Give the backbone structure.
Amino acid sequence: MSNLILVRHGQSQWNLENRFTGWVDVDLAPKGKLEACKAGELIKKQKIRIDYFFSSYQIRAINTLKLILNTLRIKNIEIIKSWQLNERHYGALTGLNKDEIKKKLGEKKVHEFRRSWDAPPDPLNRNNPYHPTNIEIYKNIPSKNIPDTESLKDTYERVLPYFKKEILSKLENNKNILIAAHGNSIRAICKFLFELDEKKITLLEIPTGNPLFINFNEKIKIIKCHYLDNK
């Protein structure tokens, strides 16, 4: 048997400001830090040994995981960071206020960009300071691997090969894994694990800072799953 814990990072500063964040490296807001610490307390109550800790490249996920580790009193442990676990790239919407864009484009169009399966926003110009090629943490990623925009489908196709190769294989070896990532990268993992179709996945909401605990049998079939904060 093995366990997988999925945690969407706590509220970020741009979550607070209601802005499209995507690949921009925005840190946690004060509420997000509290959410991460609470997530750590909830995980501690499970009394399981966690063998591997994964996060995206982004500081809001990394710091969420660090706060969880601090709460668990775990030190000197390797955090495996992967850009493939990054949030979806929101293209030309990056940095814009969601309410202002709703007024400009209409709520239906913005909902389509946010929740549709295969409709990406317009690409972000590579000269834009918010483009990942202009952000220091992505300097070691080949430029051809850095998107200008992504749909949820694009995000799924980025996340899933990494998940199957680096994470699923460890679950098959009865390891317990914790992943701190983002709404859309976790949504991609859930689509695969729960065999959700393209319509159902667009309806799935991922709360911040609430660990999703998934228990597998030896054949990596889900036995049970639940959010640790059931409220």
